[in-house]
Write a structure and sequence with these properties.
With 473 residues, this protein is mainly alpha-helical. The protein has 3 domains: 84 residues, Fumarase C, Chain B, domain 1 (Orthogonal Bundle); 207 residues, Fumarase C, Chain A, domain 2 (Up-down Bundle), CATH 1.20.200.10; 109 residues, no CATH class. The strands form 3 sheets. The protein has a two-stranded antiparallel ribbon. A two-stranded parallel sheet has the order 3-4. Strands 5-6 form a two-stranded antiparallel sheet. Helix 3 packs across helix 6, helix 14 packs across helix 19 and helix 16 packs across helix 18. The relative contact order is 0.10. It binds arginine. Arginine binds next to helix 6.
């Protein structure tokens, strides 16, 4: 068969055909390709290149193909290389020789660039929905377990108590930025390449703006060489996808630790766990691990597309066909990861007792105690030193928390300080009780009373704001 017309004396070598074919991957673009073709047909009619009857017949044929694609009733012919040649051939089978007019003023180069933008626009919408669902599940959990307390950590060591709700809302912040990045990318990607032809611009007076509007684009590309070979929008969306995966991976990582019985902060539902083929005791948070694991491939996809583009001269090069497999897979991976993480978070059972007990460990209220001294006139550095001494003393005595220290310990620590303000405090009535109150978990939480802090009133405000934004009751 002579796929490429008159210039070719023989058909493709099977090794070449197998190597260059893309239908297995780009069949994914079928609906976008058909939408582009329908808009193009209308454009050809507007330009007087098709009669109204011809345009109507072509559009009817294309709409019929669209129904068949939706129904999964198309048998793709691998000999026809890609989705564009397949659909054009099927159209011609259905409408006759008239099908030969479809490709007037169009190349597969502006066609595939258009398809990819339409596909990416749909992907952005899909992912936005998925991210919103996960955000809602995090907000619901924060609402349900609002006052559960976590041992906030830096360097993986106990640091300061934080509300679980505050911790969960940190992920909501990340995910909101991810949504913002996808929305930003959409502004630049929503531009129509149709009419750019193979590289130089179509040789017909096409009203590109009208066709663009028909496809829901916000405008037309300004340079045909750029439009047919630009894949910046793939890189932008893929980088937003990779970063979202990185955020999911961080959350997944936390859940794997939290569900370890040694922590016991949460229980992952059986429905989101797997067992072991050998160890009957095992219950593993495999979906979280796979989210973390698949993030690697998505990061690789981003690096791959950047590398793909970096050496390409203008304009279209066949290398660009390779923008699809890893990009499509990355979008699917994020979509599935969002769904599974939403399910996992929604069904998570929190053990407030275990969290609370851990939040008490490691003298996590030391900073709040030092701040309480500062509020009573002790310079921070001196307060830091005094509280450090109290921590060391408590540890040596086997006293688990600063709030558990006897009055005498507080007074002695103040009295032994180099700082005169601290020494004066040592003799103030009720000072030990006041410091002990500051050194409780509640005292520590309440003290972080700044915008963005973990004080319960601030977290309640942040939660209300997130609920408002997400339309959660
Ligand atoms: N399968 C090709 C791609 O994805 C379609 C465009 C082919 N254009 C060409 N001049 N061979 O890039």
């Amino acid at each position: 068969m002579r796929l490429w017309g008159g210039r070719f004396g023989e058909g493709p070598d099977s090794r070449m055909a197998d190597f260059t074919r893309s239908i297995e991957v780009d069949a994914e673009l079928a609906l976008d390709d058909l939408a582009g073709s329908i808009a193009h047909v209308r454009g050809l009619a507007r330009a007087g290149l098709l009669t109204a009857e011809e345009a109507e017949a072509l559009e009817r044929g294309l709409a019929g193909l669209r129904d068949d694609v939706v129904a999964g009733a198309i048998a793709w012919d691998p000999a026809l290389e890609d989705v564009h040649m397949n659909l054009e051939t099927l159209l011609t089978e259905r409408v006759g020789a008239l099908g030969g007019k479809l490709h007037t003023g169009r190349s597969r180069n502006d066609q595939v660039a258009t398809d990819m933008r339409l596909w990416t626009r749909r992907a952005v919408g899909l992912l936005d929905d998925g991210i919103l669902d996960l955000e809602r599940s995090l907000v619901d959990l924060a609402d349900r377990e609002g006052d559960a307390v976590l041992p906030g950590a830096t360097h993986i060591q106990p640091a300061q108590p934080v509300l679980l709700a505050h911790h969960l809302l940190a992920y909501v912040e990340m995910l909101e930025r991810d949504r913002g990045r996808l929305t930003d990318a959409k502004v630049r990607l929503n531009v129509s390449p149709l009419g750019s032809g193979a590289l130089a611009g179509a040789g017909y007076p096409l009203d590109r703006a009208a066709t663009a509007a028909d496809l829901g684009f916000d405008g037309v590309s300004a340079n045909s060489l750029d439009a047919t070979s630009d894949r910046d929008f793939v890189v932008e969306v893929l980088s937003a996808v990779a970063l979202t995966m990185v955020h999911l991976s961080r959350l997944a990582e936390e859940i794997t630790w939290w569900s370890n019985p040694r922590f016991g902060f949460v229980r992952v539902a059986d429905a989101f766990s797997t067992g072991s083929s050998m160890m009957p005791n095992k219950k593993n948070p495999d979906p979280a691990e796979l989210v973390r694991g698949r993030t690697a491939g998505v990061i690789g996809a981003l690096a791959g597309v950047l590398a793909l583009i970096k050496g390409l001269p203008l304009a279209y090069q066949r290398d660009l066909q390779e923008d699809k497999p890893a990009f499509f897979a990355a979008v699917r991976t994020l979509d599935a990861s969002l769904a599974v993480m939403t399910g996992l978070v929604t069904t998570l059972v929190v053990s407030r007792e275990r969290m609370r007990a851990a939040a008490e460990e490691g003298y996590t209220t030391a900073t709040a105690l030092a701040d309480a001294l500062v509020r009573r006139g002790v310079p921070f550095r001196a307060a830091h030193h005094i509280v450090g001494g109290l921590v060391g003393g408590a540890e040596a005595e086997g006293i688990a928390t600063l709030a558990g220290l006897p009055d005498e310990a507080f007074r002695a620590a103040l009295d032994g300080s180099d700082d005169p303000a601290a020494r004066r405090l040592a003799h103030e009535r009720g000072i030990a009780a006041a410091l002990r109150a500051a050194a409780t978990v509640e005292g520590s939480l309440a003290a972080a009373d700044v915008v963005g802090g973990t004080a319960p009133n601030r977290v309640a405000e942040a939660l209300a704001a997130a609920k408002g934004r997400l339309g959660v009751e």
